[in-house]
Design a protein that fits this description.
The protein is α+β, with helices and mostly antiparallel strands. The protein has a single domain, classed as Peptide methionine sulphoxide reductase MsrA (Peptide Methionine Sulfoxide Reductase, Chain A), CATH 3.30.1060. The protein has a 6-stranded mixed sheet with strand order 7-6-1-3-2-8, with helices on one face. It has a two-stranded antiparallel sheet with strand order 4-5.
């Protein structure tokens, strides 16, 4: 793939985003701004920190994977965060196809973490509070389509139990203005995204889309959850 093709997604996002920036400074048809974050309680149901170091994975979908990846790269105990696709078939795990919204895939991030340093519930707290808005259905900020849906893809029964319990807890506490629409589904195969999507926010901090939509998420992680920030 040549450099012109690799930059296609950035050009499209900027073209879509700039009118919104000029008109509403990040307000998208009355939806919450991407820079918004919510203070939420810690999960009442969680796995205890492991006694010894090991490696586990978690997969989260919450809008464009650039920002979600950027947030989790700054979480203590996370050794890797990879942008990719999940929910569809291998034959359609390509950006141009996923962007049509017809593949069943969601833009997702696979988080590799040490459960002796950070719990799955703490990762969920990051996901719900600063990484995305779980009340936006099939969209996130300026991005719209089923590929941007809010989704937790659990790898085992413990992850399923903790995720569902946390959603119930947050719903009962009414910490969000709208209904939580996050799907909790079994993990299908995760397909890493193209190389030019990896570490995109870190490599392109001056991109207007990144500056308005994604860097504030990382800043909120540092401000709101300093004990989890690295």
């Amino acid at each position: 793939m040549n450099e012109q093709s690799k930059d296609w997604t950035a050009y499209i996002k900027i073209a879509i985003f700039v009118p919104f920036l000029l008109v509403g400074l990040g307000l998208f048809f009355g939806h919450a701004r991407a820079s918004d974050a919510v203070t939420i309680p810690s999960p009442a149901v969680d796995a205890p920190l492991a006694a010894s170091s090991s490696t586990q994975t978690a997969v989260f979908s919450g809008g464009c994977f650039w920002g979600v990846q950027a947030v989790f790269q700054h979480v203590k105990g996370v050794s890797d965060a990879t942008s990719g696709y999940t929910g569809g078939e291998a034959s359609t795990a390509e950006y141009e196809m996923v962007s049509t919204g017809s593949t069943g895939h969601a833009e997702s991030v696979k988080v590799t973490f040490d459960p002796s340093q950070v719990s799955y519930g703490q990762l969920l707290k990051v996901f719900f509070s600063v990484a995305h808005d779980p009340t936006q259905l099939n969209r996130q900020g300026p991005d719209e389509g089923t590929q941007y849906r809010s989704m937790i893809s659990y790898a085992n029964a413990d992850q399923e139990r903790i995720a569902n319990a946390y959603i119930a807890q947050l719903t009962q506490a009414k910490v969000f203005h709208g209904r939580i629409v996050t799907q909790v589904v079994p993990l299908k195969t995760f397909y890493p995204a193209e190389a030019y999507h990896q570490n995109y926010a870190t490599l392109h901090p001056d991109n207007p889309y990144i500056a308005i939509n994604d860097l504030p998420k990382v800043a909120h992680l540092k401000q709101m959850l300093p004990q989890l920030y690295k």
